[in-house]
Write a structure and sequence with these properties.
Helix content: 40-55%
Number of strands: 9
Structural class: alpha/beta
Number of helices: 12
CATH architecture: Alpha-Beta Complex
Strand content: 5-15%
Radius of gyration: 18 Å
CATH topology: 2-enoyl-CoA Hydratase, Chain A, domain 1
CATH class: Alpha Beta
Order of helices and strands: EEHEHHEEHEEHHEHEHHHHH
Largest sheet: 6 strands, mixed
CATH superfamily: 2-enoyl-CoA Hydratase, Chain A, domain 1
Length: 258
């Protein structure tokens, strides 16, 4: 069974993360498939709306660490960056249905979605600093804008998770429902969007995002370049080694050396 399921019906393309046994962690193959799907949907007249969804127990735990370390994103042509560019520049409406953990890019991809519906079990986190790297997907720009600087600092500097109610309060999430109802709600809302005139939807989304496109692209490129360099540095090596060894990372010697 594929790790990404893609289905198009009634002008809605649904991209389902289907790797629950691995907590829907993303591999480079999955990124490539999602980027390709968005690229195709962008010009496909049979697709008016895209929906991202996971399982009622987990949205995504972020990168598959083993796959990530085996083939780290060392250039802007890496599949993860292709996906980021595709979702950030997608001109049609994007809806997300989020239940359970949404870690790393599982959260940052939501900044590029237009409607986000969450289960009351949703938990969001952006632990990039804790992994010895920097934010990605232009989250260093978009998180303070959406969440306010204080909330963004807790999420990005401390890497502290936040739950569905906090996400609703700060505007990242549009509505909270029981986990068993989230995917169905997202589909209903997507169908409402798909029934509206596309010219009006495209123009409205374009106006709402006007002035941001260049900033997002520039920040995403800056983050990506630094992210790649930081992967080769001691802090990231210690963080990922500790993760694989299932222990707490120890950055004290690195701090003393700096």
């Amino acid at each position: 069974m594929p790790d990404i399921l893609i289905d198009t019906a009634e002008r809605v393309m649904t991209i389902t993360f289907h790797r629950v046994d691995k907590k829907n962690s993303f591999t480079r193959t999955m990124y490539a498939e999602m980027a390709q799907a968005l690229t195709q949907a962008q010009t496909d007249p049979a697709v008016n709306v895209v929906v991202f969804q996971g399982h009622e127990s987990v949205f995504s735990s972020g990168n598959d660490i083993a796959d990530f370390l085996q083939t780290p994103p060392t250039s802007q042509d890496a599949p993860v960056f292709q996906f980021m560019r595709a979702i950030s520049t997608f001109t049609k409406p994007i809806v997300a249905a989020v239940c359970g953990p949404a870690v790393g890019i599982g959260t940052t991809l939501l900044f590029h979605c237009d409607l986000v519906y969450a289960g009351d079990n949703a938990a969001f986190s952006m632990p990039f600093v804790n992994l010895g790297v920097c934010p990605e997907a232009a989250s260093s720009l978009l998180a303070p804008q959406r969440m306010g600087y204080g909330r963004a600092a807790e999420a990005l500097l401390l890497g502290e998770p936040f739950l569905a109610e906090a996400a609703l309060e700060m505007g990242l999430v549009s509505r909270i429902v029981p986990p068993t109802e989230v995917n169905a709600l997202a589909q209903r809302q997507a169908q409402k969007l798909a029934a509206k005139p596309m010219t009006s939807l495209l123009a409205t989304k374009r106006f709402m995002k006007q002035g941001q496109a260049d900033l997002v692209a520039q920040r995403m490129a800056e983050e990506g370049a630094l992210f790649g360099r930081m992967l080769a540095e001691p802090a990231a090596h210690e963080a990922f080694t500790a993760f694989m060894e299932k222990r707490r990372p120890d950055f004290t010697q690195l701090s003393a050396a700096s």
